Amino acid sequence: FFGPCCSGAAPTVVFSAQRTCRLMATDIAARADRVKGALYGMLIADALAMPTHWYYSGARGIMRDYGGPITGYVKPVLHQADSIMGKSNTGGAGRGDDRGTIIGDTICHGKRQYWKSGSTYHYHCTLDAGDSTLEARLARRVIDVLGQRQGVALGALQQDYITFMTTPGSHNDCYASTAHRMFFKNLVAGKAPSACPDNDQHNVDTTDAITCAIPVSLWADDDATAADDCAKVVALTRDSQVACQLSRFFAGMLRSVVRGTGMKEACLTAGKSMRYDVQTDVFTSRGDPLTA
Q1: How far apart are the C-alpha atoms of 191 and 218, rounded to whole Å?
Q2: Over 70: is that where the pLDDT of 11 sits?
C-alpha cells in the first residue's frame, strides 16, 4: 500500500526531490496510522458490538437486557429472548436441530450445549467483556499469515483457517455462522478443502464475509489487486459471488479512506459504483433495517 520514496535524483532537482520525499514520508506515516487504526478499529468495534448481536427487537431489547445503552466493553447476557441459536442446525446450514456434531466436535469444541433445541442462549454467551468474536479472531489469523508469508498466500490462509477452527481451545466463541458449518460439514464428509466452500442461498451471502477481507484489502500496492485478493480470500470459506463482490467494493472504499478521503465521500462514491443511492436511502429510512 505504500510506494517507495524517491532516490537517485539529479543534482539540479535535489531540493525539489528532498521536499517531495519529505511530503511522501508524511503521507506514508499518515497512511500507516490509518491502516493501524482500521485494524485496531475493527477489533474494538467487534468487541463493543458483540453483546448486541442478533437482537431482532433492536434498541428496546438491548435496553431491557443491559439496563441502558452500551457505552463500553460488556459481557453478554447468558440468555437472550431474541436468540434463534436454539433453532439452528449444529450439523450444517441454517435452521435445524442440535443432533449434528459439527458444532461441538469439529468446530466450537464443547459448545454444542448452547445450541440446545428450544434454548435461548446468547450467541456469544461464552465470551467475556472485551473479547473478540470468532470472525474477529479469524481476521487476526489472516493478519498473522499475511505477515508470515509477506503476501496473500491463498493455500496457507485456507490451511490456517482449517487448523484454527479444528483446534480445541483456539477461541472461546460458541457461535459459528452457516458458512463455517457448511464448510466443515463438507470437510468431514471427505471433500477436498477447495470443494468445501458452500452456500445455502440464504445465510451465506452476508456481510460477515467482509471481516477477513479487511486486512487483505490493505495489503496490495494497487486497488485492483486488493479487490481481487479480497474476493479470492472470501471464496476460501464460502461459495458466494455476492459476498465476493461486496468485498471488492469495500476494499476500494477502505483504501480510499486510508488515502485521506472523508468517510461520507467514500461511502457515496462506493454507493455510486454499486448503483446504490446511499444518501437518499439514509434520509428516507424510517428505521435501522435488520435482516437475517
Answers
A1: 32
A2: no
